[in-house]
Amino acid sequence: MINLELGKKHQETFEQTMMLAEHMMRPFSRKYDKEEHTYPKEMEQVVELISAGRSEAMGGGGKKDEKKKAEPEGVVNGGNMGAVVGLFGLCWGDVGLFLGMPGSGLGNAAINAVGTPEQRKKYGSSYAAMCITEPGTGSDSANISTTAVADGDEWVLNGEKIYVTDGDRCDTLVVWATLDKSLGKAAIKSFIVEKGTPGCEVTRLEHKLGIRASDTAAISFSDCRIPKENILGSAEVATDAEGRKKAFGGVMQTFDNTRPPVAAMAIGTARAALDMTQDILKEEGIQLKFDRKPINLSAIEAELVRMESEWSAARLMVLKAAWMADNKQPNSMEASMCKAKAGRVGNDITLRCVALCQSLGYSENHLLEKFARDSKILDIFEGTQQIQQLIVARRVLEKSSSELK
């Protein structure tokens, strides 16, 4: 049986995050959009409330057991589903403020995905950022140039990373580096680096089109020494074709966990733009109703219906990818599909909403223009639109990365 509705637990999560978004995030949206790189201290209280809500939801052994029994046998709606549902609400409030919140970063997903029990215990609750992009390496992650060289009981890292989300405010970094550039993607590994380690330095903060409440940093590594046990996964480099693919796959597994949440951010931002647009148009006497045939709709109403249908399709794709992750089903293709769809739809919807509302959409008197600026990055980071489509094509056609480039 297919049930496309949220369960009670996740519906409550959504409603709670929407309440936080409306009353504790939206009021500060414009302030931190204008004061780029200023730490949003008000968000500390939001993090506290979210953490308290999680604890309460899991508190009381009886309640916890009841919720487990309520799930159909063999079906799990767990952390991945809860994460994307929560992001729908929080990013309806402000995706930049969400990304600027103290707490969990994209690097935490890598640690939780491939880290050892000891690594998860030590760094799981840290604020971990992800360092992948380099000045000469964007979407082609296999072209990483930052090096990691074994020296006794340590790794020595050298290189430069750019566009590191939360790179200045975090306390831990997950750094992608190569053990041997000549071996290609098989030699790429990820390493845990604690901020403050000698040789690790934040060199600048970027000025951006959107998500200005979130810091985006450039970080250099110059003979940066870290413990040997800080590698995520095996240090072995396979040299045969099948071994190379598997070795890099362990690193790439991170994206299967992070792409649905990024897609959820796009869904939340697009929903915010749609809701605000409909409120503005309602004041002009234009109100969307679904009880009329498309042929009887005005051009603006028809456009709203089209955007609503695109938004709903993208949302369901995100929920499917998260559900598959919770139920231990391989979701690499679905993660890329939902990221591609939601990223494009989010950007299209926010820009179209600005156009429909004309001067009101373009003005800073409303947040529509900010939603449009914020949405652009959601179609780029965690893999661009083109990269997602390439991944999906490889899966559908059963081609390897060397066969389909």
What topology does this entry show?
Blueprint: H1 8-25, H2 29-34, H3 43-58, H4 61-70, H5 79-100, H6 106-114, H7 117-123, E1 128-131, E2 147-151, E3 154-165, E4 172-178, E5 188-194, E6 200-205, E7 216-227, E8 231-232, H8 241-283, H9 299-326, H10 332-356, H11 358-362, H12 368-378, H13 385-397
Parallel strand pairs: 1-4
Antiparallel strand pairs: 2-3, 3-7, 4-5, 5-8, 6-7
Helix pairs in contact: 1-3, 1-5, 5-8, 5-9, 6-8, 8-9, 8-10, 8-12, 9-10, 10-12, 10-13
Short overview:
With 405 residues, this protein is an alpha+beta fold.
What do these coordinates show?
- The structure is a single chain.
- The protein is an alpha+beta fold and 405 residues long.
- It has three domains: 8-103, no CATH class; 108-239, Butyryl-CoA Dehydrogenase, subunit A, domain 2; 243-397, Butyryl-CoA Dehydrogenase, subunit A, domain 3, CATH 1.20.140.10.
- Helices cover 53% and strands 14% of the residues.
- It has 13 helices and eight strands.
- The protein has helices at residues 8-25, 29-34, 43-58, 61-70, 79-100, 106-114, 117-123, 241-283, 299-326, 332-356, 358-362, 368-378, 385-397, and strands at 128-131, 147-151, 154-165, 172-178, 188-194, 200-205, 216-227, 231-232.
- The strands form two sheets. Strands 1-4-5-8 form a four-stranded mixed sheet, covered by helices on one side. Strands 2-3-7-6 form a four-stranded antiparallel sheet, with no helix packed on it.
- A hairpin with a 2-residue loop joins β2 and β3.
- The two termini are 38 Å apart.
- Mean pLDDT is 89; it is low at 57-69.
